[in-house]
Amino acid sequence: MKKITLFVALLLVSAIGVFAQATEPVKIEDNPNAPEISFDKMVHDYGTVAFGGDGVCTFKFTNIGKEPLILQQPQSSCGCTVPTWPKEPVLPGASDEIKVTYNTKKTGPINKTVTVRSNAKNNTVVLRITGTVQPNPAQQLPEKITGEGTPVNK
Fold first, then answer.
1. H helices then E strands: how many in the chain?
2. Hey, which residues does 37 pair with through a beta bridge?
3. Is residue 122 part of a domain?
4. pLDDT (tens digit per residue) in 93-148
5. pTM summary value
6. How many CA atoms lie within 13 A of 37 on its CB side?
């Protein structure tokens, strides 16, 4: 009987501890002086790019907060998109840029993201690149002339 009572008491104390943690609100104090990152654009549209063409774009940003902005390594949605970013803190009021290079030897539509994390109030920002890479002309099939003189792709 003592074992059952002890077991029920432990179970009750554990349940109270779990519910207390689940219902307690998380308090995050907002620093009014914290850095804040502001981008001039959130999406870059390459439009139609030639196979092997220029796949570089830049996203200019400004630290509009009152403390230095520190960027973590941006994460791209795939290996065909490579971001480079400033490693040094960006002072309040200063601007810099994140350069994104897309591998234009991969044909078809472009719809990729780069996630930028920092110590800013808006600590996670998602940038996007879009567009289309034209097929490689060297891989297109030659036209075959029919007996009637009309070209036909085979």
1. 1, 10
2. 63
3. yes
4. 999 999 999 999 999 999 999 999 999 999 999 999 999 999 987 776 566 656 66
5. 0.70
6. 26
Q: Evaluate whether residue 143 is within a structural domain.
A: no
Q: Where are the beta strands (DSSP E) in 64-104?
A: 75-76, 81-84, 95-102
What residue type is assigned to position 44 of the chain?
H
How many other β-carbons are positioned within 10 Å of the β-carbon of residue 20? 9
Domain span holding position 132: 37-137
Structure tokens at 75: 């994460």
For position 80, which CATH number holds?
2.60.40.10
152 within some domain: no
Number of domains in the chain: 1
